């Protein structure tokens, strides 16, 4: 071997950056979650072109697997190239046209993001109010429809900022459809982790992120639209403001033609395919049950430590546990202690709940008994460090 081949130095004038050595964390925050080794292996397989016949076949498989996870027969079911926020913007930015009115919730951080995206799409935003930490009341939603007559209604099925699972989804969608409105559901922290039935619940559009209950690296994000919603997208009077996320163009790539639109994130699609294969092997209903069982053990352990859940039992979200920070405890110091001493990640609150809660994920590959046991022991130590136990 020549001296040149053996040398791994940095060229003169170039940045001297060493090999990548990220820490090996246990991810129990609001996402990303731990990634299954099979998913990581899938990402290391050979790259092919985004129009390669083998990749086109994989695209079909990913779409079918996504339909299974969403519990839908929707033809328009795709992974959007980008993070969950890209799927969110694709949903809102295509369905909401200038002049449309969109009804959004006020009961969490991500309802606010819905409002921002609807406004940027040219829509008029109106709100249905509920306190942070509580679900929407169908009576309030009905009253908001009577007052504002919105064209589109958005709600967050699993609010990551508060740990609240929205109950009574079929009742909400029925209210919207009685007013001839379209329904967009944020399922970022529910897809693959808690019960979600897009067709049975009459949801027109649902979007999600791969890095939560699917335990997949971010980069290709699930989105599904029924025919009614896609007809509205295709019949728009003006183009969607985002060329990249324009579903009337993307349907040419993910539809029957497979015509070039952009270069898909190929390795992320590999990863999503393998993550969805794991969902199918486990069975979606068994997966929902596993999340409830493992998160139930986590919840019981937290309560044994004297900690209080932010959400009442009736709308507790198993995949994201919001835990009240005890009086006199520095929430950030606990988070820092878990990272420094245990390589364990949880997160603090957002928005109205910043400083008041910890957000502890129990999602996908992270929803395992050994992770729960490890977290509870580490958290007990962190609280003792502050004299809280």
From TrEMBL:
Domain (Aminotransferase class V): residue spans on this chain: 49-331
UniProt keyword Transferase present: yes
A GO term, aspect molecular function: L-serine-pyruvate transaminase activity
InterPro entries the record matches: Aminotrans_V_dom (IPR000192), PyrdxlP-dep_Trfase (IPR015424), PyrdxlP-dep_Trfase_major (IPR015421), PyrdxlP-dep_Trfase_small (IPR015422), SP_NH2Trfase/AEP_transaminase (IPR024169)
Signal sequence interval, chain numbering: none
Record SUPFAM superfamilies: PLP-dependent transferases
Names of required cofactors: pyridoxal 5'-phosphate
Keywords, sorted A to Z: Aminotransferase, Pyridoxal phosphate, Pyruvate, Transferase
Record bears the keyword Translocase: no
Alphabetical GO biological process terms: glycine biosynthetic process, by transamination of glyoxylate
Family assignment from sequence similarity: Belongs to the class-V pyridoxal-phosphate-dependent aminotransferase family.
Span list, region Disordered: 1-36
Pfam families: Aminotran_5
Listed name of the protein: Alanine-glyoxylate transaminase / serine-glyoxylate transaminase / serine-pyruvate transaminase
